[in-house]
Amino acid sequence: MARNNLSGGGVQMETFQELLCSPSSVGGLPKQSNHLAVVNVILSLTAILGNSLILVSLRKECYLHPPSKLLYRCLATTDLLIGLISQPLFAIYWISIANEHWNLCRYIRDAALVTSYAFCCLSLFTMMSISVDRLLALLLGLRYKQTVTLKRTSIILAAVSVLSGVAALCYILDYRMTLWFGYIYIPSCLLISVVSYTKIFRTLIHHQVQVRLQSSQPNSLNISRYRKAVYSALWVQLALVVCYTPYIIVEIVIVEGNRITFSSHLSVIRGIAATLVYSNSTLNPFLYCWKINEVRQAVEQTIRQTLCRPWKGGVQMETYQELLCSPSLAGGLQQQSIHLAVVNGILSLTAILGNFLILVALRKESSLNPPSKLLYRCLATTDLLVGLVSQPLYVIYWISIVNENWNLCRYSRNATYVTIYAFCGVSLGTITAISIDRLLALLLGLRYKQTVTLKRTNIILAAIWVLSGVAALCYILDYRINLWYGYIGVPSCLLISMVSYTKIFHTLVHHQAQVQVHVQLQSSQPNSLNISRYRKAVYSALWVQLALVACYTPGTFLEIENVHNRTLSPQFVFSRGIGATLLYFNSTLNPFLYYWKISEVRQAVKQTIRQVLCCPWN
């Protein structure tokens, strides 16, 4: 078992941060690291879904006092950000340990700790603010609404957000600064919360008789409602304390011990404790639904509106989705609908034939590295499914508009959106994985084949499929959730790809002389061919990436413009249809790009066509 001692004086020892990414401390933990990564990915998905639903529900809820609702929205937003940013980074941290990629481990470790400290500090302060808010509601009485205003609450939360961010960034300067901030900040927040709840329950107990004597039935109901609000906030507070305490204890034991034996066992324990902290972001949405009646009712209403048509309230307004299948908007587009249906029908056939041929060719091709070939096969499979499933549904959607069959229009519209969001999410994730694969091939060198294995690539692709499917199904819950996934996921994938290719070309340009010298010293033709082959592979992947961006951009901009302005017209619906058709065209274009830019695929395709048309010849 690997061990490292942290002690003062004499020989300079590895710092605490370095031990978190040291082969001697956390090496040899592939199984435990993979388990922690998988658990954090699952918790991340549930945190994202749960808190997205809570935020949508809180937006509709109107019974909570605005400052109180703002505090819960801030807490849910923080939990959502933990699921979106911190937990994925923490999962990547453990994956990098499993793969023994220590440079990536250090960068991800710092990013995960900085974001986690910032979000956790904000969560802790928000919980303290909720306890103070409940105390002020009891003490101020009728003056509560005049004193605790939305503006003042917003200013306080903004100030604490800045303070939490600054405290987290201190980690980069010196880890001890962040620790000392935590030693002061955490007990202070917990002490204020304890004092607030103690004062609340003491006041309620000692003045229960007076409250009953002085209050009429409406006030009695207010007191009952107040008690429920206090108990709800207290449950959330206790959940936070339970989830945070093990990690705080482990952190103090590791850092403050006079002589610490930092072993791989302790690293796993610390990872489990950190995972328990992250689980608080998954637990909170369930507590809101269980303990807060207003939130539970809003969530039920949101789900009810998703699963069936809303039946309550005044005049029912057509939603954005319904407008896409309404005679007032989509009617009168018979000629344009026929054109779009025909074009998409043709593109569907070419996508099926082209990608089927590519999949057959890739199955025969043996010179590509298996993980790289798997990524291209996944991309071709996604494009094949677009041609087999999404585009035929899109054709049915336009034909139903021509025939004014609005029920069929709605069903085909929903099915089209869910499938295309899922497949486009997989395509985007796979393209991003290809860019990372090319970067790792450059950075890892001879260790590339040992690090980027077929099994690990399969796991990553499975995670991409699950995440894309979950994100697509959010369209059924609320169209806005799906949009926000797009606002975050699409730029993130494009940014990762851009950084990867920038790093690749920067490395190739600045180290070209060194590579040439190395080749001359070795005087071996294979190395020269490997560099040349690597350049071709990078340019091939980059062409596929640029084609995706070019095909997706018009439809993305039209979708954003449509959602924010809500000025829908038949002409805009037709323009939106053209943008979606261009997006589908990417599935037809990709096979031609593979054939044009990847020589191995081109040779395999030629061989396949020869075998189909006639007997093979040399």
UniProtKB/TrEMBL annotation:
PANTHER family: G-PROTEIN COUPLED RECEPTOR
Chief place of localization: membrane
GO cellular component: plasma membrane
Stored Pfam families: 7tm_1
Protein name: G-protein coupled receptors family 1 profile domain-containing protein
Superkingdom, natural source: Eukaryota
GO MF assignments: G protein-coupled receptor activity
Organism the protein comes from: Pocillopora meandrina
